[in-house]
Amino acid sequence: RRYRAASIVTRWRLATRRREIGESKQGVGMNRSENFTALCLGLSAVLLLCIQGSALADLTTGDEIRECARGNFPERTSIQFIELKSRDRAGREKLMDARLHWRRDDSGQVRLMIRIDGPQDIKGSAYLVIENKPRDTVYMYLPSLVRPRRVVGGGGSSIWGTDFSHEDLRLLQMRSDALGSVRLADAEVADREVYVVEQAAEPDSESAYGRIVSYFDKQTCVALQTEYFDAADRLHKRLSVDPATVAQVNGRWTAYDLEMNDVGEETSSWIHVKHISLDEDISRRFFNTVQFYKD
Asked: pLDDT grade, residue 49 (50/70/90)?
């Protein structure tokens, strides 16, 4: 529905532009047929956008809001080429190129693989995260290792010196292990109306966070801000998304720029999505515990 509205708005704008060009060249307006077409397209766009807004406005519970957000996930697969940048307290920056492969199998289980393509000193390093209950299964590979190694314990450790952990990546790409979603009072983020949803971590999930508060844009269901609190209920990290960088890919809303701030350490990291493709064929070896790190 959102995709159809955007398409009709584009056609309406094109029709209006043709009218303006015609007027400037001929000194006259469109003919009745063209005028009627532009009017219909404009009214259709407004109608569909109103329907979209009312559909999202009908969301009443935290679970419904999170389900709307999950509607932006790929149906089957995703490939993202990204830049990872980190900045420490002294202002020193590190830039990495990486690729992220995502796959949902027939049972609904999600596997996520992220691999570094540069710089040369860490090229080939990779993580594989397999969605499981009560905790995910995580494998790590470094060029200095003979074979992949399973990561034991919680998922709060940093990946490649950034402010993102593999738990953070899982929370961005998979369902969260939580005791349910509680809707809080609506708010505004970056001058946009947002739903606010709180989740508490399951006791046996080994999560680095005690609770997470997410702020979902009412028009796209994309989380524009996420706050991560530790077990002592202190704000640990904050993830922010600029609404101007949110765009549709195959009818699904995607954030192209994300910033993670570690409040206590006073450090920051960024993910910039350079290219994304959805629901294309991806070799299963990228999600195999033995072969995931190989070219």
From this structure: very low
